[in-house]
Sequence to fold (128 residues):
Amino acid sequence: MTARKDRLKKLVKVQEQLKALHETRHAGFVAAAVKAEAEAKELIEHFDTDKSLAGLFPALYHKRINDALGRQKQNLEDARQEAALIATAMARTNMVERAYKDVRRRDERERSDRERLDLITQRRRDDD
Fold:
């Protein structure tokens, strides 16, 4: 029984690491989306200023703004997918943790039962 307990304990650790990986990736995608949005806003603000080169190269500005908004959209989609993976990893982690706790309790119960049986056996020997 302890071999199963040890395997489940290792599996819980791996599942937690996997969940942490997805959380880190999610945070990275969200940060990249925020950065792309800020870049697009900055380009839009500079587009209308007098010192801007947007009057000379409007197509270039529009392309950069569209690219930034496209990156934002893609990063938000990637973040949404990672959020789904986080939920899946969390469900798996919880399931493995429950199995580990059940095995650990069963193991402790069996060990306790063996100890009581040993005490009873020892008392019988002492009485004889």
